[in-house]
Input
Amino acid sequence: MAWVRFPDGSCRKVERTEKAEARRDLDEFLALRAQQLEPGPRRQRQVTFNEVIDEWFAAGCPNVSPSRTSRHARVKAPATVANAEQMLGTHVRTAVGALWVDRTSTERLESVFSAMAAAGKSTSTIDRSWNYLNQACQYGLRQRLVKRNPAADVLLPARKPSKKRKSFTLEQAERLLTDAIPADTRPAMWLTALMCGLRPGELVGLRWPFVDLDGDEPTIEIAERAMEVGKKYTGQGPPKTERGKRRIGLHPLLVAALQRHREESEILGLYEDEGFVFATRRARRCRSRTCAGRSASSAATPASRASGRPTSSVIRSSRWSPTSSTTS
Output
């Protein structure tokens, strides 16, 4: 047992059954006294996982701790924050949200993730759920809301075998290019997605200033993408990764399709110098989900039937490209 006296005259007693825990608490009090900081109440109120998670979201979901390469905070994208809310709300809050953090064992948290694995959740879902919970608890530890992070030492269930990736065969690609796409109302959009390998957000967020069709070497520059949180468009943002910033050379077939698309847009009054390349009839941006799913059905059905894949995966996984790509 030990006593630590603070400049304001108050004292704090350190008494633990384990020597390591007593040393940790004693070092913490000594550090506070050296920095002329208040020790806080003698009996700190226990906080629950829900309260710690709420504080983490209110602070903007800061990263766990400085990495080996950077000590700067990393700002999470709105879609990442929305994903964290969905993951924690669905899998963590319902299981341990009302429990006190300091009185919850690591084994109790491991049982949560074991139950997720038994329910058939994917390895990536389990990993992300734990990652968000660990970041929230670590934030609570840094803010002295809790005394320990029970998620830090969690051992997750065994990794499940990854699914084999599927891609188009030459026959499926030929049928898509010659039959399905010409019959669709947006052939230039599907050709751009397939021949340039764009993500849905990059495709619907593509604007005319980044499309060069009249130069000696026609190109598309991927410098931004449409940002969406749920069903709401939140503006233009950078590509998903730094390597996603690139300049892609265009095949003559795609150049001709985009030139015709531009001409038709001018006739319909949908063309704007700074506007979106693939706009709706009201000159608005297409939605990413519409691009990847519902409106892709007419263009992707022949190939998706032949490959046994859902139509929503056609655009997301079609990264075969006959064009040359160089990073700007």
Summary: The two ends are 64 Å apart (CA to CA). The first helix runs from residue 19 to 34. The CA atoms of residues 87 and 128 lie 8 Å apart. Residues 1-41 form one domain.
